[in-house]
Amino acid sequence: MSPCTLPTSESSSNFSSGSPTKMTSPAEPTYDVNERVLCYHGPLIYEAKITKPPIVHTEETAPPSGPGPYYFVHYKGWKQTWDEWVPVSRLLKLNEQNIATQKALQASSGHGGSGRGPLVGGSSGGPGGSGVGVSSGPKGAGSRGGARKDGTHGGRGQKRARDEDDASKKPELKLTVPDTLKATLVDDWESITKNNQLAAPLPRSPTVQELLEQWQEYMLKLDPKPAHLREPKLVLPTIVSGLTCYFDRSLGANLLYRFERPQYAAVRKEYITGKHVIVGTEKEMSQVYGAEHLLRMIESVFLIRDYVNELLKWMEAERDQLFLAEYPSASLNYQNVSRS
Hints:
The structure is a single chain. By secondary structure, this protein is of the alpha+beta class. The protein contains ten helices and five strands, in the order βββββαααααααααα. A five-stranded antiparallel beta sheet has the order 4-3-2-1-5. Helix 5 (about 230-255) packs across helix 7. The protein is elongated. The termini are far apart. Residues about 1-25, about 115-155 and about 160-165 have low confidence and may be disordered.
C-alpha cells in the first residue's frame, strides 16, 4: 500500500482516505491541544503549538515516518501553510533542558538568534513567534523569500535555487531591524491574526504623521549629526514627506490583515467618505494610524526593492529610448548665468 500524503495546512484533517484511530500510545509522551512544545524541523528545533487532537496511524495508514501518534502543529511565527502533522518523535516538551538542546543545535548550525521567534516578512505574510528562550529561525519565514525552515531550498527543484542564487547577486537594500522591533512585529501579527485583537483606539497617539515629525525634530537636534547622513536639514523633510505619502497610499493595499478590513472601512467612512465629513477636512491615514502600521510599512520596503530592481532592468533594456543620446550644449547666456 502506498504511503499517505502529509497535509500542509489546517484545512487538511486527515492524512489520507484511510481512517486512523484517534488515540495516543502510552509508550510515547503525550501532548494536549494548545500546549506549547518544541518541534524538530530539519536540523533545528522550533517552538510550536499543538492545535488538534492526536491521531495514531497503523501500518496500513502510516505516512513515510511510520506508524504511531501524530500531532498537528503550528510553528510559532510561521504562516499556516507550514502547519503539519508530525510524529511524536519530532516533539519535545517545552522545558529548560530541551531549550538548551535547541540553542546548542542553533549554535552548531550557525543560526544566530535573539531568543525570539522567526521574523516574517510582511506585507502579505506575518511576523513570527515570540516565545521566551526559543530559537529565532531563519529570517523571512512566510515572506517572499520562501526558504525552508532548515535553510534549504527544497521542494521546488533546481531552478528555484538558481533563481535565488542570481537574485543574491543583485544590489540589496539592507535594513537593520532591532530585535525588539522584530518582536513587536511578531506580537502585532499574533494579536490580530490569532487573538482577534485590533490596534485601537483610532486615531492612535502619536499618529504616523506625528511620529515622523517627532523623529525629524529629534534628528535635527542631534549634535554632532551622524557622519553617514548627508545634509539632514535638506534631506530629512523630503524623507518624512515621502514616507508619509507612501504610508497613505500603501496602507489599504498592502499593510492590513484581513481581520482589520472592517476597521479600515469604518475609518474611511469616519474621516473621508462619510456624509458628515466636510470637504477639505478629510484626514489621511497617516493622521489616524500609528507606529504599529508604520513598522509594517518599513518592513515591507523589501517589496519596494524588488520592484525597483525590475524598474532598473527595464530601464536598461529600454535605455535607447529613455536616455539622451547626446546632451545639447547650453547657450552662452545660460552658462554665464549659471556661473554668476
